[in-house]
Input
Amino acid sequence: MRETVNIQVDLGARSYPITIGAGILGSIGARVASLGGSHRVGVVTDSTVRGLYADDVLRSLRAASLDPALVEVADGEESKSLASLSFLYDRFLEAGLDRRSTVIALGGGVIGDLAGFAAATFLRGVPFIQVPTTLLAQVDSSVGGKTGVNLPQGKNLVGAFYQPRLVWIDVLTLTTLPQRQVRAGLAEVIKYGAILSAELFEYLERSLDRLLGLEDEALVNVVGDCCRLKASVVSEDERESGLRAILNFGHTLGHALEQMTDYRRYLHGEAVAVGMVFAARLSAERGLCPVDVATRIERLVERAGLPSRLPGGLSADSLLRAVGADKKIQDGKVRFVGLQSIGKTCFVDLAGAEILHHAEAASVAA
Amino acid sequence: MRETVNIQVDLGARSYPITIGAGILGSIGARVASLGGSHRVGVVTDSTVRGLYADDVLRSLRAASLDPALVEVADGEESKSLASLSFLYDRFLEAGLDRRSTVIALGGGVIGDLAGFAAATFLRGVPFIQVPTTLLAQVDSSVGGKTGVNLPQGKNLVGAFYQPRLVWIDVLTLTTLPQRQVRAGLAEVIKYGAILSAELFEYLERSLDRLLGLEDEALVNVVGDCCRLKASVVSEDERESGLRAILNFGHTLGHALEQMTDYRRYLHGEAVAVGMVFAARLSAERGLCPVDVATRIERLVERAGLPSRLPGGLSADSLLRAVGADKKIQDGKVRFVGLQSIGKTCFVDLAGAEILHHAEAASVAA
Output
């Protein structure tokens, strides 16, 4: 095992460490055992990740005298449902998990959100560990304690803030991730640089090719930086009452785009990429930041192979509805996270007509 | 409105007040409005309580410029299910509740547990208010933050610790409660005296008839005392890691009795009454407390019209299984909460044979 990066998420009694390394998946057993709890643990994964990594994890847990029960759900967003939740409760009971049993989420964001919510609510809460295997989950959803499922009426309508005891990140799992998903994960990486760290942003500008080539050291560095940045935001605002809102940079428009295209056309990170370029250009056009800031973001997004412009042909009505449905309306205006410089955010409140004006300027036809 | 009693549950950022009075139900609107939040609120109740008290509550909320949506579930324990939870989410969305909308539980323990868990998880948590209308809910389940639902495999297997913003108790709602339920609620009242307060216990010995006669002043006093006692325990041990276990006095055997009789023969408080007398006699027989302690508890339980003995004809096997399934096993023994004196608890660990010995001595045939 190479060197690992350790980050502490500081949340008082709910503090926890994040460990990031290359090739550490097979060492998880001893770490889980060191946290105490009962021998019986639940490992939740999906059909794809099961075939790739479940054996390594189970073997390591058994070697540490733990007794893991594997619970598999179908691949994909459809598993983030109340039906899957009920399925997990049944499997947990069958497997004999008790109040001191740890639930381990092995997979991407869907698995982390679903298994985390199950852990938050099974027997009113059992210990939980995140083992994210996608770049998006490693830099974003596995840190911060947001868990939940979707309802037919919308995404993430049910859930809990529930902190894991440990996040265990092996960047080698990214080598089996489809290239498109790596790129989509990079959108969130770019976001952290844009809103919180000029240094990370400059590193990305210099080292994007090494990241796209999945070089261990670059990945460990960058995933570590992102986790550190997210941890500092989450520590100050665990339940998303204020500061945490800056993490929505690119997300107001991004969510709207995903929704308008029925979550089929864009991966989350791709929609966020469009949203970030939109928000940066908007900031520049309003004189909130130099034009160069928007240009650098657009260039980095494009180098990462991500879309930077809104698609043509969006109906104004559906765009406004989708942005308005984003629950960020303040006094009739929609609040966007904008930039003052690379690493520094501000808020921009736009009325409907202003949104349409900027959206037109930022669409592919422009 | 007569004088009210106000108690603060001290849980740091999650602290909240309990207000107890006679005839205060129709004044809830102004109090809810004073907590802030959005105008749209959800009121969850059952079919029985709806007919009795929903109008008063809705009128008071509307008079305070709030916009309540009433959500009704069927009467009874069957409503504490994942299906009801899903139903509540749908109704909340239909009613347009948002992250700042308060959910009010108007009813007994089933409604409080169900609506509380829905509030804990809808949009990852919205403000929650308990308006308990049964004695059991007023002195026990509405205070402490335990919420949840049952699974077919067992009770309370899914849930969350989620504190309300306010508990609003009108003892006049007890006038419409069936007498049997009043008596069952008194079992938990007796429990607080037995484990935490000789003063309360003596008051009950003096004033039981006034309580059974539902005299306002006695009810406000006693409900206030119980809430104060439970609040102090909960403040020290929010998530049931230690001290809170003393609240299980009478519950180890009580739960077993409920389970063995399919939750049909005993109301919860009735089973707890049998369990308390069992635990007190057990304590006396083991020399942990004077015999007089057990005698006083037995006498008060019987004066309250509650059962004090185990039914004859219980199978030893099923009793042991039911007690063992209570998740309180330590090193092969089952832990009971016992008494050293009125107001002072201790733990008693019993092996299977000892449990059967004491159970035989405490059954109706003895």
